[in-house]
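How it folds
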Amino acid sequence: SKLAKRRLNTIFSVWPFLFFLCSLGHTVSCQIRYTIPEELKRGSLIGNVAQDLGLDIQRLRSGRARIVSGQSIEYTELQTDKGILVVNERIDREQLCGDVTPCSFSFEVILENPMELHRITVEISDINDNSPTFRKDEIKFEISELAAMGSRFILAGAEDADVGSNGVQKYILSTNDIFGLKQHSIPDGRKYAEMILQKPLDRESEPRISLKLIAVDGGTPQRSGTVNIDITVLDANDNPPIFNQSLYRATVSENASKGTYITTVNASDADSGSNGLVTYKFSNMKEQLANIFHLDGFLGTITLVGQVDYEKEKKYEIMIEAMDQGGLTDSSKVLIDIVDVNDNAPIINVMSFSSPVPEDSALGTTVAIINVIDADSEQNGQIICTTDNMLPFKIKSTLTNYYTLVTDSSFDREAVPEYNITVRAADSGSPSLSTTTILRLKISDVNDNAPVFDKTGYVARVTENNSPGISIFSVQARDIDWNQNARISYFLEETEISGSPTSSYVSINSETGAINAIRSFDYEQIKQLQLVVKAQDGGSPPLSSNVTVKILIQDQNDNPPQVLYPVQSGGSVVAEMVPRSADVGYLVTKVVAVDVDSGQNAWLSYKLQKATDRALFEVGLQNGEIRTIRQVTDKDAVKQRLTVIVEDNGQPSRSATVIVNVAVADSFPEVLSEFTDFPHDKEYNDNLTFYLVLALAVVSFLFITCLVVIISVKIYRWRQSRILYQSNLPVIPYYPPRYSDTLGTGTLQHVYNYEVCRTTDSRKSDCKFGRAGSENVLIMDPSSTGTMQRIQNEKSILDEPDSPLEVSYSPTKSPHCFPRNALHNRTAPLPVSLEQLPCAISCCGLLGTLLASAWLSYCRFQQHLPDHLDFYEASSMCYTIRNYEETKYSQRSRR
């Protein structure tokens, strides 16, 4: 149809201008206008927003394009997947705008990242969807028959909700020959008609006249409305009322209260009596105006009975009709101007608000887009938008009634994490009205602060011999950033301590900063550890800081004192010689000890624990010097044994003991005779006796058993030999030689010869003497029982106090089996003569060997034999002597 084609032609009628405004806050602003007819179906296309704004579909999606409108009904919808604007709700132009033309509504399309603001205006064109209607179904007139030709009678106009050409365009009066019709237009575009008397009335011939008035609009197709006109012809009244003004003007403030006087209209009638009585009424008044204004029908006074609002209607035009009792009328116009009053405060609409904002945002970053509306006019509607000058923000005006809130300086979240921004919009009225709104803006953290330790350096202490895994110390760092940027991890910087990596000594808990020992520390090996701890946050990129931690190892008394002098050796005895002429305070020797600990753990004190004669010697508490405390006499024993204990000052204290042997003598032989033998403990002798007796019993049992077996075997072989072979020749047994005798160098294989020598190669004489660094020191083997056969320089040696005598033994082959001087050095007789031992052994055989061993043990218990002559040596000697005797017997048999 033609109407459908017309709709399609108007759908895409876009205004030929499209302008862009770009602000400093990186906000792009554009305005576009579409025109569409009313009553389009839902989903009908309005326009291609993406194409008209020069945007692609991806930008609409990424920018989260959306429509922001202050209206309660969303008439349009933006389809971001297609970039088009479509109808969302039924649009009725008459309901939306009423008589206002052109009819349009506006909204904003907002995109983010970056911020863009586009205003779209949609104009609604009218379609002829409403027919003209009359307020009343019938119009009644009472006209005097004396009404003059040309008299005018105003007809109630028809109302059409449509506008423009679709509104009422003309009136048609039904065909008659009495009245004609004349049409008029008022400034607002409405039309009304008057009946004009064209022929005198004759009440007698036609007392009632019925006509029809038809109102026709200009739409396609045309629509019309009809009302009946009922005219009653009255008797004569030949003067109509006449207004004294054709136009009345009045003003009223929009905040005027009910009952406020506006103006008075006045009309006069030249007739007298009832024909000259004039009454007033509103003519062609809309119903809504009747609720606002009141007209006194007799006085012509107009008063305010409703509420006027300048923002809704700025002026009112009212037609007043004056009528006399004869039905004659006159009309006049009253124009009422509404005076604006500053009765509307600005309204703040936050169109877009970005929170949080990074603390490193650039200057001029758009935080919010604000729309401020004031329904007042002129000065009362002029708005000033401000914010607190103390805050790092400022407001810029972009489009009309649009403002952007941008950053004016840098942020520091650690100082101010959140801002309460008060935006104030005030108009220019008197008095000024204002509105405030508070925007709560949060500042998001940026990793701009490195961790900071509580101290510039740490010193920790740990006692040595600690348990591995023990907690030594904890470091702590703070990061004033937030969340992940403030999450601190601790690490050890890789350094070396005494050639080993730091991680082999200690470890650190990455979350708590606790430093734990990996190994047990020894103060004597390492005194301190110097670490570098790194604190690193979880930001991107991460920030870090270092701190030095010095761990001091505290000494523990874990080492006993060590005696350096006198030296204790297992193979020799050290003796300090003191002459019998020594006076009080004579320095015998000095005990030298050290303690590898430190501090008071290494403070040593010396005490005399045991002594042969406590009244003779004392030990210096601090220096360890052993001195005589009285005059040495001849009655004092030659051999003095002192036990000195060395204690440190630790808790608990540790100690070491040293035995100092002191020889009180003036000559060396006297010293030698006293230090050649040391008795064994009785307990040791008792134990040895028990084991020897037990061994003798076991060996005897084995010997008897073996003897029985051997005799049995011999008898068996002898019987066999008697059976197989019988000879009268003597049997001469042969034994291989088991001795060694070469030019008088010895007759036994295992014989010990004792020599007195100082060095391993000093074999030319029995005694070798040399100088040593110690004073009056006698070193001799406690097991030595030998005597010195040749001491030619005894006097010269003894006269030298620094000449030590070292007596040692070395087992070698000797030409003498058992030299008498090598077995004993005392004058006391032995229980059994040693000269009789070979004979006894040769007679007894194996049993003799056992008996000889027992005899040797007995002699040792009685301290007649040296310690080194043990059971095995005695057995070896006896076995060798027995072989020697058997060999001599064999030789005699052969002869």
Notes: The domain at 130-236 is CATH 2.60.40.60 (Immunoglobulin-like). The chain has 13 helices and 54 strands.
